[in-house]
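To assess whether the prediction recovers the assembly geometry, we first specified each molecular entity separately, as shown.
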Amino acid sequence: MTPPDAFAAVATDTDPGVDAGSGAAQEVLRRVFGYDRFRGDQREIVEHVVAGGDALVLMPTGGGKSLCYQVPALVRPGIGVVISPLIALMQDQVDALSALGVRAGFLNSTQYPDERRTVEAQFVAGELDLLYLAPERLRLESTAQLFDRGKVALFAIDEAHCVSQWGHDFRPDYLALSVLHERWPDVPRIALTATATGKTRDEIVQRLDLGSARRFVASFDRPNIQYRIEPKNKPDRQLLEFINTEHAGDAGIVYCLSRNSVEKTAAFLTENGIRAVPYHAGLDNRTRAQNQARFLREDGLVVVATIAFGMGIDKPDVRFVAHLDLPKSVEGYYQETGRAGRDGLPSTAWMVYGLNDVVQQRKMIDSSEGDAAHRRQLQLHLDAMLALCETVSCRRVQLLNYFDQPGAACGNCDTCLTPPESWDGTVPAQKLLSTVLRLKRERGQSFGAGHIVDILLGKKNPKVLQHDHHELKVFGIGTDLRDIEWRGVVRQLLAGGLLAVHGDYGVLTLTEASNEVLFDGRQVLLRREPERVTKPARAAKAGKATVDMAPADVPVFERLREWRAATAKEQGVPAYVVFHDATLREIAARKPSSLTELGSVGGVGENKLAKYGEGVLEVLTGE
Ligand code: ADP
Ligand code: ZN
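The predicted structure of the complete assembly is given in tokenized form:
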């Protein structure tokens, strides 16, 4: 990885931002977007691009990337062209900008030719502020001619990591982006991404010829997200309880590995009174698009999805992301959990994880296509993910370190809130490993975890009897631990590379490191398996949108939400396009009595004030 010091300084959370005072950019921020101050590096980025400089911006999801190109597009003469792979979301992006009074349009393959012609005519006439463009349109000479006929203020390259062939979202069309610089050398370019690994970053710079662009690397911390990873028991029940106790009525995303479990989980939640819809590649296009649209538009819907869901979903009020299966990499986990809490309000990233996840992932790696080097890569990704799951120290620190950033114990993850106990598991580890060893040495046999644990527990079940395993010396030497505890031992040994698992049947085998435990006195520290996880003290209400609100404001907030839902429905836009939760919270707390006062609330710009101001005041006075 490239050392972080090759880049601009990491922003700190304590950066107070800069008051909007003078300057065209700050004026736009206040008047159009209704915000008082830029966040973190935004001001510097905006000023750099307004002045015509190229920029590479790395910010986590929810960090505020959009403003970095939207404000310069409004300040510079001409039209900001935004290249984005998220075709399905362009309409929503344009709607959100229109609600702010920004003139925006898009060009992609979903349009009828006459719609496209209208947008092109607006572009040439300079009647747009922002144009969203699908990358495949860059291959067309007509697009280049269009750019020549209108005035381009800047090129924004969103999801810039899509240009990287090693990344997980490679789009061949993105390679065509190199023409921008060659053909329009005077137009500033700003490339943005939330993917942080050094390799991808370097590839973006190289492929987009951004060598002399200024780089802005924000902190990747998402302080409002509470990270929690719990032992998997009955995942459906655990999920239900998690939602009911902490996130009833909230919007959330539940990730599962297979389509089958997506369907089952969505049905289970629905049966239990939670509004949930499935999303996976096996659904027909219409249903899939419909479910996504419902998720974006309705308040408090849960979507159960495979990882195919969510890229570019900029719904700001997703209150939780739950994983019922182990993600394949920390990058994937971080990207998926990052979809929670873009509005900065408290949110939860919750996951359950167990022995079978490890077995299953190893199996998938064993049977994956590609060469040994590729499998090795997958293995490294998995190991990092397992290390995160098994850590006894702060999860956030571990995440940040993974992205080459420093961090201090956060106080808002499960290991900080209820520090796990560790215990000396050397003897149990030796018992388990020697059982595996004996079977191999004495009988030439290998078995899966379940059977090994049965031997340790001295269970005379049919399989044990059939193989005469009750005659082994190790039979019944492990009755001091319960079944669930033994499974925890196996899982942690696997995660730590002290044991290996192979093949379709998940048979356990020893590794080099196993021998150190068996013969060289290597100590094994394990994490205690909680019987049942009790919620961290602050977790019970961690994610509710109403957390931290004065009780008296809650009913006002709820009434504002109802008004917002009705207004959004009437106008056919997602609720957050009207106002974000954060804005409604502030209104509920301050209860402005005039339009002027309302206009000073964060997120209430000129246009929204004119459009919704009276409606909001009516809700407030209609007590
Ligand atoms: P990203 O694209 O990096 O995921 P967004 O651009 O969607 O993030 O911004 C995330 C959220 O933060 C949005 O709700 C946005 O309105 C809000 N936001 C961004 N910048 C500011 C700011 N300077 N002040 C207040 N809110 C902001
Ligand atoms: Zn922590």
